């Protein structure tokens, strides 16, 4: 019985690692493997669009590649690889706002992917707004970095494996070893469950957005005639704190806030 449980734990751990380490191509290349949704549906037209977009990208027609990837999205196909390729195509086409938008969407599905993070950092370096983040407690940053090493599914699998470990530890004949094993497994189970919940909440978050226009004035109130507080440029990421009549109150990384028209930003 114990061997069966151990084999189950090992399989869960391997599955978690595979989710955490899914590779992506570099900025100069695109992922050629069709998204899982397109393959599962068996729609030849979707696969043809995928190949057409990849071919256009390879041939240097980045605008056509982005348009074709967008057509796939409009048909309900979505995946990390599709978002990642869209980000690459938009970056090559000098549409930095769209590139940052789709890199962030790809990162939500694969938070531990170093290639996406690197490409996102390259794109962010091309933005005009140099905003300094408000310093945060190092422990918060450290825990978030650990949480981002894997996605929601991987953390969920790992928490299940630790739950099984906890149950197994309770069956150990040596009381002291069983007690300490249960305590450690329980603490790790709670931590990984918290990570899984955090990743899911971040994946479903609708308060992060990217400025899509070349520049936009941030107003003191949701009114075009109100005072201009400061200006944001394409590609800047903002956090939405309120919405009113087509306007959004946003906060930027340094704590400044104001109102922008909703049509000038796009939610990640």
Can you tell me about this structure?
The chain has 268 residues and is of the alpha+beta class. Helix content is 55%, strand content 13%. It is built from ten helices and seven strands. The protein has helices at 2-20, 36-41, 44-58, 62-74, 80-92, 96-109, 114-124, 138-147, 152-169, 175-203, and strands at residues 208-211, 215-219, 228-233, 237-244, 247-251, 257-261, 265-267. The strands form two sheets. Strands 6-5-4-1-7 form a five-stranded antiparallel sheet. A two-stranded antiparallel ribbon has the order 2-3. A hairpin with a 5-residue loop joins strand 5 and strand 6. Helix 3 (44-58) packs antiparallel against helix 4, helix 4 runs antiparallel to helix 5 (80-92) and helix 5 packs antiparallel against helix 6 (96-109). The longest helix has 29 residues, at 175-203. The radius of gyration is 22 Å and the shape is globular.
Mean pLDDT: 79
> If strands are numbered along the chain, what order do they take across the biggest sheet?
6-5-4-1-7
Uncertain runs are: 12-28, 38-42
Structural shape: globular
Short description:
The protein has 268 residues and is an alpha+beta fold.
Topology readout:
Blueprint: H1 2-20, H2 36-41, H3 44-58, H4 62-74, H5 80-92, H6 96-109, H7 114-124, H8 138-147, H9 152-169, H10 175-203, E1 208-211, E2 215-219, E3 228-233, E4 237-244, E5 247-251, E6 257-261, E7 265-267
Antiparallel strand pairs: 1-4, 1-7, 2-3, 4-5, 5-6
């Amino acid at each position: 019985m114990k061997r069966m449980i151990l084999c189950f734990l090992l399989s869960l751990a391997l599955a978690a690692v595979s989710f955490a380490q899914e590779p992506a191509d570099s900025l100069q290349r695109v992922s050629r493997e069709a998204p899982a949704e397109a393959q599962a549906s068996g729609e030849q037209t979707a696969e043809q669009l995928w190949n057409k977009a990849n071919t256009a990208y390879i041939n240097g027609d980045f605008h056509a590649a982005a348009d074709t990837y967008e057509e796939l999205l409009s048909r309900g196909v979505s995946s990390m690889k599709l978002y990642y390729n869209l980000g690459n195509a938009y970056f090559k086409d000098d549409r930095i706002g769209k590139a940052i938008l789709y890199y962030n969407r790809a990162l939500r599905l694969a938070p531990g992917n170093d290639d996406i993070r690197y490409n996102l950092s390259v794109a962010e370096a091309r933005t005009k707004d140099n905003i300094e983040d408000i310093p945060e407690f190092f422990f918060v940053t450290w825990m978030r970095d650990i949480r981002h090493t894997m996605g929601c599914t991987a953390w969920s699998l790992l928490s299940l494996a630790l739950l099984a470990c906890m149950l197994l530890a309770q069956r150990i004949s040596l009381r002291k070893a069983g007690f300490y094993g249960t305590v450690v497994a329980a603490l790790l189970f709670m931590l990984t469950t918290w990570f899984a919940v955090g990743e899911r909440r971040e994946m479903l978050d609708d308060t992060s957005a990217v400025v899509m226009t070349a520049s936009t004035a941030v107003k003191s109130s949701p009114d075009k005639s109100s005072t201009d507080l400061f200006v944001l440029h394409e590609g800047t990421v903002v956090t939405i704190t309120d919405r009113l009549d087509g306007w959004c109150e946003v906060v930027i990384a340094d704590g400044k806030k104001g109102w922008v028209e909703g049509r000038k930003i796009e939610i990640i």
